[in-house]
C-alpha cells in the first residue's frame, strides 16, 4: 500500500492511499490535485474519508463524486455534503482491504473524527485531520479545552510507531512555538533542523510518529515540568493539565 501526500492550497495535504490500481483519499478540499494524481498513476477512486466539515477538507467532494466508485465516509455528528456513509466512535471501515477504526476526537470541531488503521502492525496509519499537527494542534473552533485535551491524550496513547498523517504543513511554525515553550528540550531543535532540510527540498515533514510527537509537541506534554512552568508563567493553574493546555493554546493563538 502506497501513501502519498498531495499538496493542496497553500499548506494542506490530501493523503492518498493506493495499491497501484485503486486509491482512496482523505479530506479532499480541492478536487484538482486528486484528479491529477489519479490520472498520472491511472488509479480508480474507491473511497473518500472525511475528518470534519471545514471547506479545506470537503470542498472537492462534489467534483470527485463524478469518478468515485465507493463511499464517502464522514462523521455522523457533522453536516457534510452528501450522500455519505456516516461513521461514529468504534465503527470499523474497510479501506482497500485494510481495516480502519473511527475515533471521535472533538475539539477543533464538535464532531471531528480520526481514522486509525487496525491490525498487528506497529506502525498503523492515523488520519487525524486538524486535531493533531506535528508539534502542534488544531484551534478550538467548536470544542472546549477539556474536550481537545482529552482527544489529544487519546492520540498520544497510541503505539509510538503510529504514522501521524495531519492535514496541514504547519510543522516549522509549530516547532518555533514549541521551542519558546520548552527552550531546554533538544529534541525540538534537532527535529526543526531535519524539517528545514525537508522543506528546502520541497518535501513534506509528514507523516510524523506518535513517539516523536510525545517528545516535541507541547500540547502532548502538559504534565512535563518545563511545560507546566511555562504555562504557569501565563497564568495557568499548574496542577490542572487542562488549564495548562488551555494556556498553551491561547498563547499559540497569538504567537
Ligand atoms: Zn479544520
Ligand atoms: Fe484544515
Describe this structure in words.
It contains nine helices and 14 strands. The protein is globular. The strands form three sheets. The protein has a six-stranded mixed β-sheet with strand order 1-2-3-4-5-6, with helices on one face. Strands 7-8-9-10-13-14 form a six-stranded mixed β-sheet. A two-stranded antiparallel sheet has the order 11-12. By secondary structure, it is of the alpha/beta class. Helix 5 runs antiparallel to helix 6 (186-200) and helix 8 crosses helix 9 (241-253). Helix content is 33%, strand content 25%. The chain binds zinc ion (ZN) and fe (iii) ion (FE).
Shape: globular
Major sheet strand order: 1-2-3-4-5-6
Helix content: 25-40%
What is the structural class?
Answer: alpha/beta
Largest sheet: 6 strands, mixed
**What are the distinct ligands in this entry?**
zinc ion, fe (iii) ion
Kindly estimate the percentage of residues that lie in beta strands according to DSSP.
15-25%
- Unreliable residue stretches: none
Radius of gyration: 18 Å
How far apart lie the N and C ends? 39 Å
Number of helices: 9
Question: Which helices and strands appear, and what pairs or packs with what?
Answer:
Layout: E1 2-8, E2 12-18, E3 22-26, H1 31-41, E4 44-49, H2 55-58, H3 61-64, E5 72-75, E6 85-87, E7 92-95, E8 98-104, E9 113-117, E10 125-129, E11 132-133, E12 136-137, H4 145-156, E13 163-166, H5 171-181, H6 186-200, E14 208-209, H7 210-216, H8 225-232, H9 241-253
Parallel strand pairs: 3-4, 4-5, 5-6, 10-13
Antiparallel strand pairs: 1-2, 2-3, 7-8, 8-9, 9-10, 11-12, 13-14
Helix pairs in contact: 5-6, 8-9
Bound molecules: zinc ion and fe (iii) ion.
